[in-house]
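Give me structure tokens for this 495-residue protein.
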Amino acid sequence: MLKRILVANRGEIACRILRACKEAEIESVAIFAANDAGTLFTELADIAIQLEGYGLAETYLNQQQILEIAVEQGCDSIHPGFGFLSERADFAQAVIDSGLIWIGPSPEAIAKMGDKITARIVMKEAGVPVIPGEEVDGGIEQIIAAAPSVGYPLLLKATAGGGGKGMRVVYDEADLETEAKAAMREAFNAFGDDRIYVEKLLTGSRHIEIQILADKSGRTIHLGERECSVQRRHQKVFEESPSVALDSELREAMGEAACAAARAVNYEGAGTVEFLVTPIGEFFFLEMNTRIQVEHPVTEMVTGVDLVREQLRIASGEPMSCGQLSMRGHAIEVRLYAEDPANNFLPAIGKLKRFVSPTGPGIRLDTGVRQGDEVTPDYDPMLAKLIVWAPSRKESLQRMARALDEFVILGCTTNVRFLRELCDHPDVVDGWTTTDMIERLWPEGWNPDMELSISSAGLLIASACESSNYGRIIQHSSGEVGKISPFSTINRRLP
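Here you go.
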């Protein structure tokens, strides 16, 4: 059994892991940079240690310092969460070499799946369908030589990393060299590796991923799918389970392909195999994330399986506790970002003067921020994940809409109103979501261009510097402050 875990992460995912440790009666150690002092995750841990240095390289990416703290604090294991060092095979190996338990798959599995070219080759050998493309492993000349056989439009992708970094769409041969150089520069800046390869761009496809679990006994299962098609800049913002595009036959075929992918690298722990699904129902391997996913709560809500707790069990050498796949109802997750949808979804900063989350049946909020926290450019701008569950997809959408209507965030521009509009958009309501949806509908960013009709009954628009992302702040002649929702004619007062 694990006794004391160091959580090598911050924010929302650190809170999620620390709470799982508490429930499992495992002691926890949090590490934090100076600008994270006093934040929520540092208070949830049994022990919190400040990292020396400034910036990511000296703090959350400083492998040596993290390992030294783990040993000094008597930890027996490290959980990396997602992002940061979670998919670094060298860090996983360093943890093991230090005599600690790595809560995740083997360094070999991480290395094979982390290199996109190697992953494609391994998947082909395992019989898992991959996106048509060329596994070139060189410079511009090889890219130019491979492009005609792949055909346009095509996608240039970084061999290392993910999250949309080092990725470029090329529609015409005339743009290939320029876009390839740009992709290589971005890949090198993000991952220290400028290698890119070529894939066919599958337009109008859905992004569907399969959650898998594998324990040390060799048992590998899948826990159904998550649809993650609604994305901006290749980053997911709206996820749901189950997908309207899958029937039981396609679900089982994709689930078995995901398990085959995991078995091909002797995978252990929780992982996600991502696929693109075409309009005619073909599916192709996209990549495997060798860690817990941001959107894992969606699967937890429909299956009742605590995926982080399962990670802890598997790392302890215990068999997983869940059995045959059983999905119930429908769950949706939206990612709340400090960003400006009207300015092409660029990140925003500011102090969270008000942060009042919704409540009620079937609602879950995973967050690492609280009212009064400062949103800075130092880290990813995701503030929270709002997850809802209901017996049906229609009810789940209605519940999400209601929850977003109730969410109050003041002091920082966010995408709350954009997410709320998604809930009513015909493509989302009808289930016609594709990976190019946001770019197709709002190529320059989303702007509601809202026109409010305010009567002359003594209502005045308040100062724009105190703007709400949910409604518009108004001030009554009496001095009381309230707001008008862009989604109803109801005038709600702020408490």
